[in-house]
Design a protein that fits this description.
- There is one protein chain.
- With 137 residues, the chain is α+β, with helices and mostly antiparallel strands.
- The protein has one domain: Thiol Ester Dehydrase, Chain A.
- 28% of the residues lie in helices and 39% in strands.
- Strands 1, 2, 3, 4, 5 and 6 form a six-stranded antiparallel beta sheet that branches.
- The mean pLDDT is 94.
Length: 137
């Protein structure tokens, strides 16, 4: 299941070069991951019931084109892979002209809340992730 999240670039997000600062795109991607999680039945409350949390351990990001103040950006988030203790999300940011601005791969690891270390994805979460993955195949 892909989820789209839309934002409008504000003047405070522009750097000295007149475009969105590269670091700001990491925030945009985080907001989109939070929205994806909520609509994918992976919200914080459900994770707490499982005694786990999700931690982003890797983001590979490619900047393709600049974004400017007033641009309307659509961030597409889609489940790419499910592993034993982690999963990977593919994220792409497009502007209002459907130009690819950013593409990123984000790896999220499941952390046991008590042990504070990675653990296998609990079965209940794995069922949800596999259902989402099957929808996009």
């Amino acid at each position: 299941m892909a989820k789209n999240f839309e934002i409008v670039v504000r003047s405070t997000e522009i750097d000295g070069n007149g475009h969105v600062n590269n670091a700001k795109f990491l925030e945009y991607l985080e907001w989109a991951r939070q929205e994806w999680s909520k609509t994918s039945e992976i919200d914080k409350q459900k994770l707490d019931l499982l005694g786990i949390n999700l931690v982003t351990v890797n983001i590979n990001i490619n900047f393709k084109r600049e974004a400017l103040e007033g641009d309307i950006l659509t961030i597409n988030t889609e489940l790419e892979r499910v592993g034993r203790s982690s999963f990977t999300l593919s994220q792409k940011i497009y502007n209002q002209y459907n130009h690819l601005i950013v593409e990123a791969m984000t790896t999220r690891v499941v952390i046991d809340n008590n042990k504070k270390e990675s653990c296998a994805i609990p079965e209940k979460l794995k069922v949800v992730l596999n259902r989402i993955y099957e929808q996009i195949q």
